[in-house]
Prior knowledge:
The complex is a heterodimer of chains A (57) and B (291).
Chain A: H1 3-8, H2 29-46, E1 49-51, E2 54-56
Chain B: H1 2-12, H2 18-29, H3 32-51, H4 55-109, H5 117-137, E1 141-151, E2 155-164, E3 169-170, E4 175-177, H6 187-193, E5 199-202, H7 205-211, E6 225-231, E7 240-246, H8 256-290
Antiparallel strand pairs in B: 1-2, 1-7, 2-3, 2-4, 5-6, 6-7
Amino acid sequence: MSNEEKKLELLKPDNFSAKDPKNPKNIDAEEMLEKARKKRAEVLAKKSVIVNGKKEK
Amino acid sequence: MINRLYNWLNRNKDKENIFFIGLKFIYKISVEWVHAIIIILMTLVMTDFYEKSYWTSFAIILIIMIMIEIYFYLIGNYKKYKYQVQRNSDLILNEIITATTALDDYVNSNNKSGKGIFEYASVLVTASMYKVLKDVTNCESRISVIQQFHEDGKKRKCTMISRKSKKRTSSAKKELLVEYTKNKNYYFLKILKENIDTYVFFDTKNEIDKNFFWRNNKKKSDIYQYIGLAEKVETKDIAFLLQIDAMEKKAFGKDKDELAVFAENYIYPYIQFLKHAYTMERTIKGDERNE
């Protein structure tokens, strides 16, 4: 199958077992989003900036 | 009417023609202190005309003053509108960054196999959009993502891979045949069947009741407005459909123009996120096949 043909192919939803922790249906999306929000806030808080060659807090 | 004017201005504000440059200049000088000085000067002139009984000039100045007041009222409202648009854009930007972070974590924890990326992205989108729309509209909504795929390389099938509403967060595992939908007459099947890859709006319950169950118009729906957007992602047929149902009247806008602005502001960024996840899953799986 050529690359062009591959592009035209539709993805099929994956099969997960009902108990698979990686099954998107078993993951609490709201909790994951909340974790990601906290993670981003922590990263932003820790990130220092270098302005004109000098490190700022 | 006024909102339509503001939407039009907002969409065209970056155009570089004389008309918009003129409007931008007037907008920039429309600050409170300029307003105050104009009114003071005109009041002085008007008092003078009144004392001298120049009634025609008095009337002209009065009309100009009223027009200036209307103008500053519109400018004031436009500034409020712009603030609202910026606040909401900021909200959406933060949500997309958050969803991207969560998706990255999933991809990395999944041995970068590509498995489930699009489905997980859909679950994130429905959860995030539900929260954002609740915040922006104060109304209940129902969000869902439907994925279309080929069975045995030929038959087109679809399945709802994620859904979020007040009552539940779930997805219907049932697979439906797109081509043969004798008993299943939901509008989304029409969108998939006819490969309608553009925004589909229904702005009133009446229109939904007339069209939504396209093969049985006696059936009634419980939704008041509908926005659907299907995407092809370089595919011949539609790859997925994002649906947003309003559970209350005029939740997304008063008419189709407002619905269009709403969709552009709140739905389009999520569509891009889903397209990105779809392409990522296909690329990773394609690379795996080639190895």
